[in-house]
Amino acid sequence: MARSKAARGRGFEPAPFDVVEASRAVWLRHWEPEAASGMAVYAAILRSYQLLADEVGRVMRRHDLTFARYEVLTWLMTDPESSLTLSWISKTLRIPPATVTNIIDRLEQDKLVRRVAHPSDARTTLAEITPRGRKVATVATEDVNATVYQRIGLDEDQRRQLTDLLAQLRASGNEFDVERSDEVVEKVGSRQARKAVGGQDNRHDDVA
Amino acid sequence: MARSKAARGRGFEPAPFDVVEASRAVWLRHWEPEAASGMAVYAAILRSYQLLADEVGRVMRRHDLTFARYEVLTWLMTDPESSLTLSWISKTLRIPPATVTNIIDRLEQDKLVRRVAHPSDARTTLAEITPRGRKVATVATEDVNATVYQRIGLDEDQRRQLTDLLAQLRASGNEFDVERSDEVVEKVGSRQARKAVGGQDNRHDDVA
DNA sequence: GACCATTGCTACGACGTCGAAGTAATGTCC
DNA sequence: GGACATTACTTCGACGTCGTAGCAATGGTC
């Protein structure tokens, strides 16, 4: 046996120093300050992502999920009709269509989701969550909440600051449609997730 | 031909709304507030990462690099002796050993790096950057600086706030060794990258 | 109502990543 | 100095992602 030190605690040893600040120091010697601060932002985000994704991924693996599959599941669970079109998933979560196919394939194999024909558009497919899918998603959420989300080393104020700064970064990079976002978010908050999504998708949602 | 709208500008259409805030609203209805804010932090980091990684990746592809290979190159370029051990790379950049092997394999294929035997420890291999590697890394850096890093939609104050918050997050998650970090960073800032790294590695660096 | 661009999805293949197991060299302890 | 643990690296195989190309359905236009 003889597990090495690396196997203790989390999945990986800490780096011997803060690579972000070290890189910033190097950049400042060779390039312009705005390049250095921008590089530091990317490096910090990358490493924060890896850190958290690692922890989240470990939780998901316990439930035989990946984060991508889990995320799709939670959106399906939230939807009033328990189903979403694959293209909606692709656009909203910004997952390439081929990857969505892949994800739904796997979820369907595991009986967490079912493909259903769209009532009025023969081109589109609906993914519908099964009772089993609901159960799995709920348990996984409780787990990841307790294991990762609640334990992030920032207080509520700092979390707010952080998400605000990142929202600005994403908005300026066109990660989401800033115009329409507010109203939609409000509606989601009051249980109207899918219908509220503006744009061309709604033409298919003539069921309601 | 007939390129679809998705092909315009950046690699992907913006999402129809801010998924982070929408998810937060959902979470707040079902779970505890700390879980909701933690989830929002992860979601925001994930999406910021995807946004930037996409842009950075596109730049790197122009130079026939991935970000991982590029990052290794820049660390090699910065090193006073233009070479680092594979295990140092693995530990510092937190890349699993197998992936480092893979990365160096590829860089060696492209003649950007050369494997050199370690003078005093037959187990360890040094990766040494070639003149060609230096050139490629420099050009790629100029490109990514101008194309991505300088254009991040935050001013200098906000960038500082953001990297500080993320530093705290990473530190609390043990992403790097907080104790020794400061001194090392300082030395890197004055051109002593490799030697400064405390711990067991230095035993091999008896060349200097 | 016949074109033709667009949309929705899928099959295929390439790529990067990483866990696990294996080999070789080295360090340690009695 | 011999046994045993540790360290360094590689090989192998599996996985998830995504670009590309293809097919089918649809909608607009004349």
Query: Roughly how many Å apart are the termini of chain A?
Result: 60 Å
| Global shape of chain A | globular
Number of helices of chain A: 9
Strand order of the largest sheet of chain A: 1-3-2
The gyration radius over C-alpha positions of chain A equals 20 Å
Q: What profile does the largest beta sheet of chain A have?
A: 3 strands, antiparallel
> Structural class per helix/strand content of chain A?
mainly alpha
Q: What number is the mean pLDDT of chain A? A: 85
| Subunit arrangement of the protein | homodimer
What is the helix fraction of residues of chain A, given as a range? 55-70%
Order of helices and strands of chain A: HHHEHHEEHHHH
How would you describe this structure to a colleague?
Two copies of one chain form a homodimer. Chain A is mainly alpha-helical. The first copy, chain A, has helices at 19-30, 33-62, 67-78, 86-92, 97-109, 131-147, 156-172, 178-189, 193-196; strands at 83-85, 113-117, 125-129. In chain A, strands 1-3-2 form a three-stranded antiparallel beta sheet. Chain A starts with 18 loop residues before the first helix and ends in a 12-residue tail after the last helix. In chain A, 44% of the residues are buried. Mean pLDDT of chain A is 85; it is low at 1-10 and 192-208. The interface between A and B is large, with 92 and 91 residues. The structure holds a DNA duplex (30 and 30 nucleotides).
